[in-house]
Write a structure and sequence with these properties.
Elements lengths: L13 H4 L4 H24 L3 H8 L3 H8 L8 H10 L25
Helix pairs in contact: 2-5, 3-4
């Protein structure tokens, strides 16, 4: 076999495996969960991208870019606004202060 491609075991966090810092990886993971929820909601409601974009007060090309993974062009705030415009509830919780922790963390879950 010519040119074997090296493989590495995943840590379970694709963004960290790609070299993003822990903070960047956490943000990208949160965005990907929100984007998946938008796509799932569109599918369940039978919405086209044009219909969903109108409901979200954005344009179809922007929504399309985001659904294809162009996360740099959208904030978590905007994604949560789109989800609520599509009829989903988004919950944000702040956990109690931990004096032993050096920093907090962003955790996204479905």
């Amino acid at each position: 076999m010519a040119g074997k491609i090296p493989a590495h075991k995943s840590s379970g966090d694709a963004f960290a495996d790609l070299g993003f810092s822990p903070a960047e990886a956490a943000e990208l993971n949160a965005k990907s969960i929100l984007i998946d929820a938008i796509a799932e909601t569109m599918e369940k409601r039978g919405l086209t991208q044009a219909d969903a974009a109108k409901a979200c007060r954005t344009d179809q090309p922007t929504l399309s870019k985001v659904l294809r993974g162009r996360m740099e062009s959208v904030t978590i705030d905007r994604l949560t606004a789109w989800l609520t415009a599509l009829g989903r509830s988004v919950e944000i919780r702040v956990k109690p202060f931990n004096a032993r922790a050096k920093t907090g963390q962003l955790v996204a879950a479905r």
